Amino acid sequence: MRHLTEEELIEHYFSEDANRIVVETHLRICGRCEQDYDEISNALAVHGPEPPAREPGYGRRIWQSIQQPLLPYPSKPQHRFFFVPRLAFAGACLLLLIATFLAGRIWERTHTRPSQAVTPQAEKERVVLFILDDHLDRSERLLVQLNHAVSGEEAAGLLLQAEARQLLADNRLYRQTLAGAGDPLLSAALDHLERVLLEVANSPGPLSDAEIARLEKEMSTDSLLFQIRVLRARVSSQQPKSEFSRKGA
Amino acid sequence: MGNDDHALIRAVLAGDKDAYGLLVERHSESVFRVAFRITESEADSDEVVQETFLRGYRSLADFHARSSFRTWIYRIAMNSALKTLDKRKAEASIPVVEEYDDGRPGIQLTDPAAGPDRLLLDREIEARRHAAMEKMSPTERLAFVLRHLEGRSTEEIAAALDMSQSSAKQAVFRAVQKLRRSLAPLWVKS
Ligand SMILES: [Zn+2]
What we know:
Chain A is mainly alpha-helical. Chain A contains 12 helices and no strands. Chain A has helices spanning 6-13, 20-29, 31-45, 58-66, 86-103, 106-109, 120-147, 154-178, 184-202, 209-218, 221-238, 243-246. Chain B is mostly helical. Chain B is elongated, with a radius of gyration of 20 Å. The complex binds zinc ion (ZN).
């Protein structure tokens, strides 16, 4: 008699077995398999803590806590079902950036935000800061990965390049838009970042140790990383603390 | 239900931000459950839910019409929950999990209903369950949570984890195996 495998017994537990009757019959006549099955059932009966119930309106509360910084997607008629190119989204962000920066320099003004009332202008600033922070965050992570990259990890190298290409497209838009905003540190950092991204994105294959070392040296990626961290600290200090970012503190 | 989700997603992508609010309302509780199954912390799970829907919104353009929104948002939630778990582990610098192998003698059960023995046994079971969860790979853990604790189909798990159905089944199988091995010594005397 062929006994049931552990896999068959687990499939049976989840009612996924192709031939349920055969398994059931076998379990009835075979003590050994029955014991195995009991052991599996016992183990699966052990549960951790159950998720506590959420209060009514939980979903609405979550939505309220996150919706503010979200930018509506551009409301162009979509011919291709569901497909919005990333650049279209970046383009919408760019329009907001332009609107905001034409109205004034956010860096100086946000320090003296006078009232709690949320004006459309303040909304826009929040979105700009949110997007910029995200861009800087992703750039920071890329630079950290680059500084710690180990040769031979081809998959990681390819991912790094793909990310660099994405960031490069966004960075161009942000750099061009912010060129006239009168923020030298930001402009310089975005400019420096673009040169590094170009090198990473256009490298013919996964980056070798030597290439990474050269990038670090010639393009001083550590100092760029430092600049970006300074900028991020500044951006996040200007971002109003939402319930989201404050929770759990 | 699934098609309603698709209509809402189309609305969001056409500029109606509030349509996303309806998706959040519809799915936040099940996302919370999955997050809790992984983090086993209420506060962390609430944060995971917020982070998940925030990320979901911003990558909604990458959503493909052929998949279900729930499955897609699960995937984001699980990654976020695993990240939170890693963060908590690093913060607490939890010592390496004790090995519970088959050679270790199990607890001798005289009367399972008795007070102190029962407590001791419960603590032992919990420690062994926890150790088994820690031994599972992230994929095994996710597959296990979805299949066993949330009762999702293999098909849905495969979609959420972006793998074939047979790989999803294998992941569940290995997870159950680990749980069984970890708890096996406790059943000897029962
Ligand atoms: Zn048998």
